[in-house]
Structures are given as C-alpha cells and as structure tokens.
C-alpha cells in the first residue's frame, strides 16, 4: 500500500493510504478551515425549511405542514425511500428560475463558509419536468448562479445532470438529448434516487451517449444497493467515480480493485446515518475505508435534510473518530484529486491545502 507520508508536500502526488485506522488527535487545536471540493451534493437537498416556507408563500403554494416545527418533525427517515418521498414533495415550491437561483445562492454561501472551494452540484431535471417545470427554468436558474460562483464566492463549480434510476432509461435518454440540444452548461451526468432494484446496467445506453458527448461520468452505487452494483457501474457504465460506495466493504476483491485503480468514492457520513444505512456514526466504515487505502472524500449529499454541510460532517467525524489533522488533510486532498476540475484548478487548490499548518 506504499509509504505513509508525514509531510504535507506528499499530498501533491497521489494520496497514499495510512497504515493505521486513525491517528492521535489534537482536540485542543481548533480545526482550521480545510479547502475542500464537494463532489456529492444534490442542489434540491439544500432547500432549508425556512426557504421552503418562503418560496411557498412567494408562489402561493399551500404546504401540508402548518409551520417549520411540523416540517422538521418529518425529518426522521427509516431508509432512502422515506427521505426521497419528502425530498420530491418539497420540490413543489420550486417554480421559477428565481427560485432555483435563490436555492443555489444559499448553498454556495453556506458551502463557502464550510471551506468548499470547488463544488460539483447535481440537479434532478426529471423531478422538475414531471411537475411541469421546464428544463430551461431549472437548468438556467441553477446555472445563472454557478456562472459567477468564482467571483462571488471564490468557488469553482460544475453542474451535473443526475438521472432518476427508478424511471425508465428512455426518459433519461430524452432528457439528455434535450440538455445537449439546449447546450446546457453541464459537465457530467450522475444517477440517483431509489437504488435497490434499479441496477446501473439499466442505464448502459445513457452512459454511452453521455461519454460520446464528452461528459464526465459518475453514479450512485453501493449506498443501499449491493457491492455488485459498484462493479456494474464501473464495468457497464464506465463511471470514473462512485457516489457513496460504502457497501464495497462487503467485497474484499472489489476493495482491492478500487484501491488499485484509485477509484474515488464520494462518501456522505451524516447521510448514511440519517438514512439508516449505518446504525450510528461510530459504526460508519469511513475509518476502515481510509485504512484500506480507498480514495474517499467527505460530502454532505442533502445537507438540509441530513443535519449538516461538509464542515458539520467533518466536525462530527472528528468527534467520534478523533481524526487527526493529517487524516482530514488527506480527505481534503482526495476530494480535490477526485474532482472534475481542470488540472490547473486542482493544482491551485492543492497548493492552498499544502500551504496550511499541520498539527499532528
Ligand atoms: O442520497 C441519495 N441517494 C439517492 N438518491 C438521492 N437523491 C437525493 N439524495 C439521494
Ligand atoms: Zn446522493
């Protein structure tokens, strides 16, 4: 698995696996804001309860909750589907380009405060088309804010069109065609929604078409679904990155392959706890994944629903696992290396990361 580097400069190269699960922490030293890339983020999952109520009022929509407290009481999930039901229902408040822009602006502002310097943001176009909202409305609303993210927040961004795996592939193909026809500013495609029973192979043609169009490729796999879905996403879809992927730990041959090929896994610890994929944060496989030498990063998934943004994920991980400054810096370096940003932007962010003081 290679040597364990003990200096920041080593993060310039390929991140290297540690030989122990966790290092000594230095809890007395306040965490410095690590520059990170957020690679797994659903923009619709950033709709905070307050914004849901504000947009409902603006658009004359009556919500099925009397107030914020009643809405927050619904944030008790038993599995992925119980979350998705609320996630899709709350999208009803997104009606105009301005609504999509307001949601995106709020995320960028909060993410910048969390140390996010590059964000790859998924949008679920089919979830809006099915409500009668046009592709132009949702795509342009989000993209208009991303266009100036560097000037406004010092954050580079990429828009990822995510496709709903519980819908037929034909629907995804039609939407991808429409996105390409309108020259939508997307850099990649993803695959999300209900995983079990909707294996990656169902979307073979979609991924072939996206690859042909020059788009980067990622897909959710191994969140609730089995390790075999991760293998399928790699072998049939040809994805470069796996979103979640925690179930890979059930398959030692797969872990070895992911390590060898340095396949990025965009892990979302608080999401996994809230969706009951793991019992508690203390049971999360992240330390074991790091110890195995996997290329993992920390992401927030749907921060408004799962109890926190990237900084909250890091803070709670630190509290439970006593991650060292070195472990955190490695996770940050992994996120940057695993992004679809330009090589120039990656180098800039790695330099920023390496210029910080390490307390370990
Ligand atoms: O965590 C998730 N998993 C699958 N689909 C999703 N869509 C939004 N969030 C998620
Ligand atoms: Zn996700």
Automatic annotation (TrEMBL):
It catalyses: adenine + H2O + H(+) = hypoxanthine + NH4(+). Residues 35-354 form the Adenosine deaminase domain. GO terms for molecular function: adenine deaminase activity; zinc ion binding. Its cofactor is Zn(2+). InterPro entries: A/AMP_deam_AS, A_deaminase_dom, ADE, Ado/ade_deaminase, Metal_Hydrolase. Zn(2+) binds at residues 40, 42, 220, 301. The record marks 244 as: Important for catalytic activity. It is an enzyme of class 3 (hydrolase). NCBIfam families: aden_deam, PRK09358.1-6. This is Adenine deaminase. It comes from Pseudarthrobacter equi.
